[in-house]
Amino acid sequence: MSVQVQPMTTPIGDPVFVSDGERFVPTEAAIGPWSADALQGSATAALLVRALQAHEASRGREVARLSFDFWRPASRAPITLEFTLLRDGAKARTVAFDMLQDGKSVLRCTALLLRSGQTPALPAADAFAAATFAPPEEGVPIPVAASRMSPFFAGVDVRMARGQILEPGPAAAWLRLGRPLVDAEAASPLAQVASAADLVAGISQWAHPARLGFVNADLTINLRRAPRGDWMLVDALTLAGPMGTGYAVGQLHDRGGPVGQCVSSLLFEARG
Prior knowledge:
Blueprint: E1 17-20, E2 23-26, H1 41-56, E3 61-70, E4 80-88, E5 92-101, E6 104-115, E7 140-141, H2 144-147, E8 156-162, E9 171-177, H3 189-197, H4 200-203, E10 212-216, E11 218-223, E12 232-240, E13 245-254, E14 257-270
Antiparallel strand pairs: 1-2, 3-6, 3-11, 4-5, 5-6, 7-8, 8-9, 9-12, 10-14, 11-14, 12-13, 13-14
């Protein structure tokens, strides 16, 4: 089931978060590219997915959608999580987890969970399937400078399957969070998907990042099935409009093929 945590490969290095009772303390490995005190969205999204799985695993529902709203920058302050039940129907259940720092919500994950069932076999079900990609072992490592964009990103294994990171145009990359997520615990496949999807606008660029930066205000992930394993591919495309806004969209894969898609709303900011 989508909300269940599956055993993963043993992670290496310092954890992204350390548990402290019911709180979580971000480590240096959670820091993003924005400032020395601002957490990477991939890190916080994965933490909320972990909470979702722990809370919902026994209910037999499939995760159909994850929506993240980044209310304000997340800092190095200790984190507490708050659960809200929004809907509990026979076919659909909607829940939310808020990430609180200093008593204020900085990020919310809203999850839609649907009743588990069996899809009828349809001969043409994969007629419009997304492109296939070589496994991550055959991907191209990114330049060392790119891998050091942030302390968090330095703990992510990246292999390019198409295109080049930090260059304009569509691109596809395999990603894997190699560090433990909390204490010695590895990220689950669903947490790996959330972590990878948050990087969609960093994989595909509208313009060279030296000329045009961006802020991602949200992230929505739709899933067709439960992801498997720890490597996730994001086949990404970033598009900008004339008024400084746009979005990045990505098709999500694991080693078994297409898993879902993601989209992130962007605010572009000129540099230099």
